[in-house]
Amino acid sequence: MFKSGYIAILGAPNVGKSTLLNALLGAKLSIVCDKPQTTRQKFLGIVHHKEGQLLFLDTPGLHQAHKRLNQLMVDAAKSAIEEADLIYYMVDPKAPTQADFGFIQEIEAKNKNYFLLINKIDKTDKLDLLPFVDAWRKKCKAKEIFLISALGSDGIQEILNQSPQYLPEGPAYFPEDQITNRDMRYLASEIIREKLFHLTSDEIPYSLAVVIEEYKEETKINRIAATIFVEKESQKPIVVGRGGAVLKKVGQAAREELEKLCDKKVFLSLFVKVVKDWTKKESVLKELGY
Ligand code: GDP
Ligand code: MG
Q: Which ligand is nearest to the CA of 122?
């Protein structure tokens, strides 16, 4: 009996959801970053297992929302609970928080099967882990509890092997060589965004959006033009840098990664545009695809 269904990876910002998705897929598709809240949109990664096809929704971190954008991110995470056939709830190796219990209750109230993944065990002493595992075991109805290191790909195969049994019977929706349903435009914007996160200061990342204006595939080269939206005039010089130095570094790093991904030369042009307070405006958020 072949299975296929949706799996949502949920948990607080920075617990390692994107890293896990990449480990599951065996390829770098979702952006990984030290700064929380970098995964804004749901993302579908496909894992082909001999017993089933696992369709992964990557979700923004579950957290208290302030601005409108953050609220949309939390809504996206919560709607993933509805859509999912199985949930991986990810936590740091520490005692369960009140917020964790809130979300666990929400998952249990919807009668969803879930695994608890205690991540980053490479950073923690085995003996120190035991009380946390006990505390979780008493408090939650997870089908399985896994101790993993997403970064070290430790424990990943076990999770995959236990997953198909919780998915509905169904066909393989995607061919075996396909690992995402997102197109190159989306991946290109994510790569540019990731480079911006790494190369700009702390206050900038949450005010950024990247929109691909042009994506042209020619025989020898791909031409890509992207606009980076910031929400304040004062943020523009930070993204551009002195004499354009920051933007140049972002462009170069993104181009190199895109060339690897497309296996082709890439010509990348980047523009920066200020749209006042876009993270607070519903109409702009819609236009940018949130
Ligand atoms: P997300 O916000 O939940 O998607 O978290 P990310 O996947 O972006 O990871 C946040 C940070 O935690 C990054 O710096 C990762 O390298 C790091 N990280 C993720 N998994 C592990 C792990 O298993 N061990 C260690 N030591 N670090 C990890
Ligand atoms: Mg993430």
A: 1
Q: pLDDT tens per residue, the chain (290 residues)?
A: 899 999 999 888 889 988 898 899 876 566 555 555 555 555 578 899 999 999 998 676 655 555 666 666 677 777 888 889 999 999 999 888 888 888 888 899 999 999 999 999 999 988 889 998 999 998 889 999 999 999 999 999 999 999 999 999 998 888 887 777 777 788 888 889 888 888 886 666 677 888 888 988 888 999 999 999 988 899 899 999 999 999 999 999 999 988 877 778 999 999 999 988 777 776 666 666 65
* Environment of ion ligand 2 (residues, CB < 5 A): 17-18, 39
**CB of 41 closer than 8 Å to CB of 76:** yes
CA distances from 55 to 84, 163, 181, 202, 234 (A): 9, 11, 10, 33, 41
pTM of the model: 0.75
Could you tell me which of 275, 279, 225 has the C-alpha nearest to residue 251?
A: 225
Structure tokens given for 58: 């990557």
The values of phi and psi at residue 145, to 5°, are -120, 125
Tell me the CA–centroid distance for residue 32 and ligand 1, in Å.
7
**For a pocket test of ligand 1, which of 14, 20, 58 has the largest count of ligand atoms closer than 8 A to its C-beta?**
14
* Residue 108 neighbours by CB distance under 10 Å: 13
